[in-house]
């Protein structure tokens, strides 16, 4: 049986220095670079995983966090299937900015975009400024999934992409059900007597 192949455009959003590039570096190469360069504009990478006999090709867009790049960022998420919005658990401001990103996604992204909130830098939990219940409320309010990570230690990074894979599978099975329901309805619609 041939493995199904799915391409998933995934965009990483969030403030500068929250660890977007570090999370991707950990996911793709299983490495952590203390001196990783800040992203300018956007950076593109590809990584595949296998999930439930499906090959998922993640087309990963790492966007710059600086405010001056925000108008450009819209180009990357308007047709994305997944948005990962990253904050730094030791920086309350980076968490407050999530409200801006959710508003942007509501206005410009696909209606059924999968939203993941990533609370990064769990290795610095003793400096934590964002409490877990606040992050959970933010996720619930915005119909998003919350994952806590440490790009430095590698904690939670694979989990982010496993959760995306689960969501993609669920969304695909819903689409199949809708198509089947439409097929069932169509013959009934055709039986309507024509007037005149």
How would you describe this structure to a colleague?
- Keywords: Nucleotide-binding.
- This is Small guanosine triphosphatase family (GTPase)-like Ras family protein.
- GO terms for molecular function: GTP binding; GTPase activity.
- It holds the Pfam family Ras.
- The protein has 196 residues and is α/β, with parallel strands linked by helices.
- It has one domain (4-190): 3-Layer(aba) Sandwich (Rossmann fold), CATH 3.40.50.
- 40% of the residues lie in helices and 24% in strands.
- It has 6 helices and 6 strands; from the N terminus they run βαββαβααβαβα.
- The chain has helices spanning 20-29, 70-77, 92-96, 98-108, 132-141, 157-190; strands spanning 4-13, 42-51, 54-63, 82-88, 114-120, 145-148.
- The protein has a 6-stranded mixed β-sheet, sandwiched between helices.
- Helix 5 (132-141) links the parallel strand 5 and strand 6.
- 33% of the residues are buried.
The CATH class designation is Alpha Beta
How many strand units?
A: 6
How many DSSP H or I helices?
A: 6
What would CATH call the architecture?
3-Layer(aba) Sandwich
What's the alpha carbon Rg, rounded to whole Å?
A: 19 Å
CATH homologous superfamily?
A: P-loop containing nucleotide triphosphate hydrolases
Order of helices and strands, N to C? EHEEHEHHEHEH
Instruction: Give unreliable regions as ranges.
Output: none
CATH fold-type name:
Rossmann fold
Can you give the helix content as a percent range? Answer: 25-40%
Overall pLDDT score: 88
Distance between the termini: 53 Å
Percent strand equals 15-25%
What structural class do you assign from the helix and strand content? Answer: alpha/beta
Major sheet: 6 strands, mixed
């Amino acid at each position: 049986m041939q493995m199904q192949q799915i391409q998933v455009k995934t965009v990483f959003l969030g403030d500068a220095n929250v660890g977007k590039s570090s999370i991707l570096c950990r996911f793709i190469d299983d490495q952590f670079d203390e001196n990783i360069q800040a992203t300018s504009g956007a950076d593109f990478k590809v990584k595949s995983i296998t999930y439930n006999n499906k090959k998922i090709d993640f087309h990963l867009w790492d966007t710059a966090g600086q405010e001056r790049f925000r108008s450009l960022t819209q180009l990357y998420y308007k047709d994305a299937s997944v948005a990962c919005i990253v904050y730094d658990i030791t920086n309350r401001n980076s968490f407050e900015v999530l409200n801006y990103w959710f508003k942007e996604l509501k206005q410009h992204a696909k209606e059924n975009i999968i939203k993941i909130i990533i609370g990064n830098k769990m290795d610095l939990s003793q400096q934590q400024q964002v409490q877990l219940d606040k992050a959970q409320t933010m996720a619930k309010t915005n119909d998003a999934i919350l994952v806590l990570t440490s790009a430095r230690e590698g904690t939670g990074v694979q989990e982010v992409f496993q959760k995306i894979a689960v969501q993609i599978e669920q969304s695909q099975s819903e689409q199949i059900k809708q198509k089947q329901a439409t097929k069932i309805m169509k013959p009934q619609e055709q039986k309507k007597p024509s007037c005149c």
